[in-house]
Write a structure and sequence with these properties.
By secondary structure, the chain is an alpha/beta fold. 23% of the residues lie in helices and 18% in strands. The protein is built from 6 helices and 9 strands. Helix 4 crosses helix 6. The longest helix is centred in the last third of the chain and has 12 residues, at 175-186. 30% of the residues are buried.
Length: 226
């Protein structure tokens, strides 16, 4: 597997977690075996009549009590069929809430090549002035109403194109929000900082947060739409 260079390599020299020579790069190919138990699969996932998040959460909120309900809804529940990151062991995830500047998100949060290049002019046309999320919240506040999810990757990421050994963060959920953030940033219309759920695998990662510990720093958090 070839080692490749990512543009963020030269931007951030200090990282939260040092590399571990005994661990491999995070597999972001989308082809790794799923680590998610079938018991968590939403009833009707991928069909028109899928059960509601409330129904699903009532069954699994004890199993997933260590995760914020926003994470469970936006990632596990909504993207059960489509997430390329089902290889992440849910029971080993720890997290904390952070506030990241726009530039850091756009330059340091790795996006799989399959998600395509960011196209600010095109993406602005797609989202601006629309009634749906993330356009509605981001047009009003310059940021999102649901934090994006970013995984700490101290050993880099492995993609179908090779290994990006120096990547320290991988965007797990929130690709549409990041696309529109980039478009708004290009026009000088976004907020300066944004809420991020920063994930890590295992005890050597981040201090564990609980849902009740996540504060809502701005009024836009109250608009709880998908």
């Amino acid at each position: 597997m070839e080692n490749l260079t990512y543009s963020a390599d030269l931007i951030r020299a200090l990282v939260d977690i040092p590399p571990n020579s005994h661990r491999e790069a995070f597999d972001a190919t989308g082809y790794a075996a799923s680590a998610w138990p079938d018991s968590l699969k939403p009833i009707g996932a991928g069909a028109a009549q899928c059960e509601s998040f409330e129904e699903w959460w009532n069954r699994h909120k004890i199993t997933l009590a260590h995760l914020h309900p926003m994470m469970a809804e936006q990632w596990i529940y909504r993207h059960w069929i489509w997430s390329p990151y089902r290889n992440l062991p849910l029971d080993q995830l720890v997290w904390r809430q952070e506030s990241w500047k726009t530039r850091r998100i756009l330059e340091e949060a790795f996006r799989r090549p399959q998600f395509g290049m960011l196209q600010p002019a095109f993406d602005y046309e797609v989202f601006h002035g629309k009634y749906f999320e993330p356009a509605r919240s981001m047009d009003q506040t310059g940021t999102w109403n649901y934090p994006i999810m970013v995984l700490s990757t101290p050993n880099g990421v492995k993609t179908t194109r090779g290994v990006f050994a120096q990547v320290r963060y991988c965007l797990i959920e929130g690709h549409q929000r990041v696309r529109y953030l980039n478009a708004l940033s290009a026009r000088g219309e976004c907020a300066g900082e944004h809420c991020v759920f920063l994930l890590s695998i295992g005890e050597r990662g981040l201090p564990h947060s609980t849902p009740s510990s996540v504060h809502k720093p701005a009024s836009h958090w109250s608009a709880m739409s998908a």
